[in-house]
């Protein structure tokens, strides 16, 4: 929430517009990791099931594909709402700059449509297509998901480092160069940092479900495999993300020095700048609370204590985040970095045990940590967007248009009413999503309890409970031998 006193000189409708956008984005971003990365993780499991062959792996892939479809259905709704909000809440930005950076939203929309078609084909293909044909028809799914991420990050990176245009005498963009508008200086660092974060988060979220089952005594191969594959994907990428995170921080230091100053609570431009872990920036530029580490900020920024770091006071107050906004961005940045560091330790613990014993760690504390790693990863994703967007204040287009200049003229009372309605609708939608997923999970547990996870004995009316390829279990009362051939069932 943004305190009202921060917006005293701003249009009255700015606060509800910001709150509405922040809420819908925060809700949508919880779905994005599974939307971007679950298709890949599912196909990894699918490939394992075909290569072995392994009916348990195929069963997991089948069930994950069902979750993927339900999640995507909600994600496409919340993503579409965000797209409309750009035009409805920020017409000043879209009216002036839409021709420059709007292609990113077009790419994302096409990716959504393509992914919807591919998910439908993939779901339909279970038991209806030859195994290898079905697998290869699913291979484009991760590519479509990456294309959607490409579109939205292209738009956001342009807002952070706008390029690809010149301004005419009225300050309007002309001579647009699409390639430069898409591939801005921040695009590469943002895109790879975002994509890897999505894969890490999805891996830990999925693995966390099976870690909970493991802690509850479900030590069968189904839970072992359901944990190991996604956790391995996340564990391999976690140290990679550490390098990418360091790189994007340096790029922010070079390309958006005032945002970097907000993230690190740097007030005066200087060398030998200390690093603050947490703490609160005061209006006079002092930092209250937190842990001060001498020289570290300059070293992190330029690998030397002599590195000069630009401070917030180097620009007028109207061109920088307020002290409260800087503190919000700083806390989000620190939480993201600390949780990321903890996940690296968890990944190293897993790697050490696998290297030494070719087995999962035996300690229940490892699985307790793994069980919460998914939630922790989602928190880091939320913090990443907070630090990116709040740290850019007061600019909606960095150094070209302020947020107050872009906001809709719609009255504040109407926006607050819409905000309340959206909160109610989103709670119902996300509650329904959670209810559906829990119902599916409960049904699968009942099927597994009756027969054990595997190809035989699952209920014949449960389409995700038996082996995806080959004849289904014979229904009660069916004539002996009344099975269809593998791949022929319609």
From TrEMBL:
Its main location: membrane. The chain crosses the membrane at residues 20-45, 66-88, 100-123, 135-155, 191-213, 225-244, 328-353, 365-387, 414-438. Keywords: Cell membrane, Electron transport, Heme, Iron, Membrane, Metal-binding, Transmembrane, Transmembrane helix, Transport. It holds the Pfam family Cyt_bd_oxida_I. It comes from the Bacteria. InterPro entries: Cyt-d_ubiquinol_oxidase_su_1. Residues 449-460 have a biased composition (Low complexity). It is found in: Cell membrane. Coiled coil: none annotated. Residues 481-490 have a biased composition (Basic and acidic residues). Residues 449-490 are annotated as: Disordered. It is a multi-pass membrane protein. The keyword Iron applies. Belongs to the cytochrome ubiquinol oxidase subunit 1 family. PANTHER family: CYTOCHROME BD MENAQUINOL OXIDASE SUBUNIT I-RELATED, CYTOCHROME D UBIQUINOL OXIDASE. This is Cytochrome ubiquinol oxidase subunit I. It comes from Streptomyces goshikiensis. The lineage of its organism: Bacteria, Bacillati, Actinomycetota, Actinomycetes, Kitasatosporales.
């Amino acid at each position: 929430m943004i305190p009202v006193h921060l917006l005293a000189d701003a249009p009255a409708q700015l606060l509800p517009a910001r709150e509405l956008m922040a809420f819908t984005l925060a809700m949508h971003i919880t779905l994005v990791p599974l939307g971007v990365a679950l298709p890949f993780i599912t196909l990894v499991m699918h490939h394992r099931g075909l290569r072995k062959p392994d009916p348990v792996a195929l069963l997991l892939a089948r069930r994950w594909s069902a979750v993927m479809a339900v999640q995507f259905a909600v994600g496409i709704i919340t993503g579409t709402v965000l797209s409309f909000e750009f035009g409805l809440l920020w017409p000043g930005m879209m009216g002036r700059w839409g021709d420059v950076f709007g292609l990113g939203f077009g790419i994302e929309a096409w990716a959504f449509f393509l992914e919807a078609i591919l998910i439908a084909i993939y779901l339909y293909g279970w038991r209806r297509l030859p195994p290898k044909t079905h697998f290869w028809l699913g291979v484009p799914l991760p590519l479509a998901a990456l294309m959607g991420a490409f579109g939205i990050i292209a738009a956001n990176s342009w807002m952070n480092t706008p390029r690809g245009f010149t301004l005419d005498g009225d300050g309007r963009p002309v001579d647009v160069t699409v390639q430069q508008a898409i591939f801005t200086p921040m695009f590469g660092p943002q895109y790879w940092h975002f994509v890897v974060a999505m894969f890490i988060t999805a891996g830990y979220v999925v693995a966390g479900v099976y870690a909970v089952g493991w802690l509850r005594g479900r030590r069968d191969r189904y839970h072992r495999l359901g944990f190991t594959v996604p956790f391995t994907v996340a564990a391999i990428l976690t140290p990679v993300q550490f390098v990418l995170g360091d790189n994007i921080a340096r790029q922010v230091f070079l390309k958006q020095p005032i945002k970097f100053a907000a993230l690190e609570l740097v007030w005066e431009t200087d060398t030998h700048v200390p690093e603050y872990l947490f703490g609160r920036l005061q209006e006079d530029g002092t930092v209250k609370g937190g842990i001060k580490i001498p020289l570290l900020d300059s070293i992190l920024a330029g690998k030397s204590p002599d590195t000069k770091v630009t401070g917030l006071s180097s620009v007028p107050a109207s061109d920088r985040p307020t002290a409260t906004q800087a503190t919000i961005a700083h806390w989000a940045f620190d939480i993201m970095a600390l949780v990321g560091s903890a996940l690296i330790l968890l990944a190293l613990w897993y790697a050490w045990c696998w290297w030494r014993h070719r087995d999962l760690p035996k300690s229940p504390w490892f699985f307790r940590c793994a069980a919460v790693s998914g939630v922790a990863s989602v928190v880091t994703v939320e913090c990443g967007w907070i630090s990116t967007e709040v740290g850019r204040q007061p600019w909606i287009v960095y150094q070209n248009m302020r947020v107050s200049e872009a906001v809709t003229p719609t009255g504040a009372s109407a926006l607050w009413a819409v905000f309340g309605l959206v909160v109610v609708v989103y709670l119902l939608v996300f509650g329904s999503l959670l209810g559906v997923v829990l119902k599916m999970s409960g049904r699968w547990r009942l099927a597994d309890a009756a027969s054990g996870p595997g190809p035989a004995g699952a209920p014949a009316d449960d389409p995700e409970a038996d082996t995806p390829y080959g004849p289904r279990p014979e229904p009660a009362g069916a004539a002996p031998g009344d099975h269809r051939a593998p791949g022929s069932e319609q």
